[in-house]
Amino acid sequence: MTDASANRASDADGKVGVVIVAAGRGARAGQADGPKQYQRIGGRAVIAHTLETFLSHPRIGPVVVAIHADDAELFERAAGANAKRVFAVTGGSSRQASVRLGLLALRESAPAKVLVHDAVRPFLDVGLIDRTIDAIGERQGALPALPVADTLKRESATGMIEETVSRAGLHAAQTPQGFPFWPLLAAHEKAHHLGKTDEFTDDAAIAEWARIPVKIVTGSPDNVKLTWARDIAMADQRLSNALPRFPDIRTGNGYDVHAFEPGDHVTLCGVAIPYDRKLSGHSDADVGLHALTDALLATCGAGDIGTHFPPSDPQWKGVASKIFVEHAAKLVRERGGRIANADITLICEAPRVGPHREAMTEALAAMLGIAPERISIKATTNEKLGFVGRGEGIAAIATASVVYPGDVPA
Ligand SMILES: Nc1ccn([C@@H]2O[C@H](COP(=O)(O)OP(=O)(O)OP(=O)(O)O)[C@@H](O)[C@H]2O)c(=O)n1
Ligand SMILES: C[C@](O)(CO)[C@H](O)COP(=O)(O)O
Predict the structure, then answer these.
(1) Which family, according to UniProt (predicted)?
(2) N or C: which end of the chain has fewer CB within 10 A?
């Protein structure tokens, strides 16, 4: 709790006092790990969202939070730095009792107007606060409410419908409810002294009993009260959907090189190209497909081509490298990945790649199961530099992009 004077606001500065009731046990929500106001939605406690909205509103002055005697630690943890910007008081055994204790704690600050709000309505907004404050009069309260939209039925003791109740003029009450401070406190005190300590489920009802007129202002459909476990799950879902998403797009690269040896063709990107030499290797030495296999494996951290097809294993002797690429694509798919594109650059002085590009693209599209426009095959010479430039072999660089399910974890 803070130094009271730091938060004290008076009529003079026109700031509005607030009582947030947070002393309930949340029996209907039935959360095993603490009352609903301390459950996390969108990464923060329910009450932290509620506090934030009030504390960042320019018209709001002193804020009192009525908490349960057992919840001091939970509250401090949930409110974080904001715990020091409010007065925490111990609430009572009913909502009404908690409101009264909160109002008593505000007496010293003596605000002209007070808002009473449920901690478990975290989706209130600035407009709703303003509308409510604006409608408070010297002897008039303000209640945000929405017209009832469902047809209403009264149930009999036997579980049958007794009657259909007209919904004309009926509204569902929300909070924050606003009142001139002293008349509301007087009404609560009177009820308390008459032993009426838990018969009013909201402050508009106690005002009605004390003959304080209450004006209805438009509520907000978002301003739901979290009552059941399902409400908490939906609130969390709602806030999570509102967070920026970081789709799980991953890029992998691969590099390979094979030397020439005597022969009559080279196999590049699955296509046999007549040539006066061949590439030496354990398999068909398709340097482009080897680089691409590594790029695909890299997108899911699945090692490299040697992890899956060790050159020491005789079963891979002379095989078509297509099986390496198809295996890597299968691993990607098994993890839910969708290949967005594949890009291969072949680096050689000869043979010429251009005339075979279309056939290579088609072969790769079939291997990967993606459209040809998602495949790019490029070739370049090495400007006669280095081993590639001297015509001793062919190098290849490949890049693959894969979209995996879900988001990048925070
Ligand atoms: N003795 C009480 C009871 C309720 N409240 C507060 O009043 C608001 C609305 O009450 P409700 O939704 O009924 O909360 P709970 O009483 O906690 O729920 P339940 O009735 O399911 O136990 C909540 O912010 C709750 O913490 C309070 O401050 N003190
Ligand atoms: C005050 C209130 O939020 C108005 O709708 C509501 O009455 C409080 O909840 P409870 O279940 O009646 O305690």
Answers:
(1) Belongs to the IspF family. Belongs to the IspD/TarI cytidylyltransferase family. IspD subfamily.
(2) C
